Amino acid sequence: MAITHRKDTRPVRVGDLIIGGSDQVVVQSMTTTKTHDVEATVNEIHRLEEAGCQVVRVACPDDRAADAIPEIKKRINIPLVVDIHFDYKMALKAIEGGADKIRINPGNIGRREKVEAVVNAAKKRGIPIRIGVNAGSLEKHILKKYGYPTAEGMVESALHHIKILEDLDFHDIIVSLKASDVQLAIEAYTKAAEAIKYPLHLGITESGTQFAGTVKSAAGLGAILSKGIGSTLRISLSADPVEEVKVGRELLKSFGLAANAATLISCPTCGRIEIDLISIANEVEEYISTIKAPIKVAVLGCAVNGPGEAREADIGIAGARGEGLLFRHGEIIRKVPEDIMVEELKKEVDKLAEEHYKK
Ligand code: SF4
């Protein structure tokens, strides 16, 4: 059963995508390369695109990075977000260079003329601004008021930055409220969803290494998504960013929120197993990872409970002695010899994907 996802957020255009205003949740990641190294950055972005990343962010710490934006933009296929800390000149350069969105907190830019210059440039090019509130770097007056980072303080900080943009009649806004404390992040996003009509960008910051960070992000973002909150997300891992995309897509699949990803159902195996299920499941998982259609594929160790247990699968295989049983929605369609069953399953998956793409 899919959850009822919040749709009443403002739709904000980012390149050729719309974030907000629907139940779609867009998967993002961030490059780990030096942005001025165009070759390495573009290569990493291509790997992220291949993994299903829909929006990519690059850091823009200096002029060399800002100067690289036009060339990076030219060579990639997904919307490009440029992350700027304070320097409004860097923001102007990034906007001029073709950024599809910038991430900057207007309250940190400084004098009003500087804020206006950035907002006007973004307006002119029709690109949004993401406000990124971080529990670890809340404004002094907010910390003083609450004593330590709280969900209320984080939302207050977001509203403070939003007001600066709204006062300049700028409304293409996306907001994140990241914390590395899972409970704090859940509370902040829950409160923000009540107070803010702009799309929310979800994330648990500094969540850790691939394994620990995956569990922590899934716990935190899972709780937030289960409330129907979030229009885009980034999993932050101390790992290859391709892993962030894989985790993000898998998380969305668990909530029926990934419209462009195939899902694997595989049994935990038990004493009834008739095939080498673990390696087959890994092979099939790898195979379907680049499929951009919402197909459910099952791989089951035996036919005893198998096909019936995976009734929701669009296509599946269950091990039998020396052969595999191909099934669709719980009904066996044919038997295939064990040595070619994985290949046969892949062909059926390709057929279903083709049918979906043609629709
Ligand atoms: Fe065991 Fe068969 Fe169920 Fe897999 S599908 S857990 S092998 S009974």
Could you explain how this protein is built, in words?
With 359 residues, this protein is of the alpha/beta class. The chain has 2 domains: 12-254, Dihydropteroate synthase-like (TIM Barrel), CATH 3.20.20; 263-358, Sulfite Reductase Hemoprotein, domain 1. Helix content is 42%, strand content 19%. It has 12 helices and 15 strands. The chain has helices at 38-51, 63-75, 88-96, 112-125, 140-146, 151-167, 182-195, 210-225, 241-254, 277-288, 306-309, 341-358; strands spanning 12-14, 17-19, 26-30, 55-59, 80-83, 101-103, 129-134, 173-178, 200-202, 232-234, 263-266, 296-300, 315-320, 323-328, 331-337. An 8-stranded parallel barrel has the order 3-4-5-6-7-8-9-10, surrounded by 6 helices. Helix 4 links the parallel strand 6 (101-103) and strand 7 (129-134). Helix 2 (63-75) runs parallel beside helix 3 and helix 3 packs parallel to helix 4 (112-125). The model has no long low-confidence stretch (mean pLDDT 93). Bound molecules: iron/sulfur cluster. Iron/sulfur cluster binds at residues 267-270, 272-273, 300-302, 304-306.
How is the secondary structure organized here?
Blueprint: E1 12-14, E2 17-19, E3 26-30, H1 38-51, E4 55-59, H2 63-75, E5 80-83, H3 88-96, E6 101-103, H4 112-125, E7 129-134, H5 140-146, H6 151-167, E8 173-178, H7 182-195, E9 200-202, H8 210-225, E10 232-234, H9 241-254, E11 263-266, H10 277-288, E12 296-300, H11 306-309, E13 315-320, E14 323-328, E15 331-337, H12 341-358
The structure holds iron/sulfur cluster.
Iron/sulfur cluster binds at residues 267-270, 272-273, 300-302, 304-306.
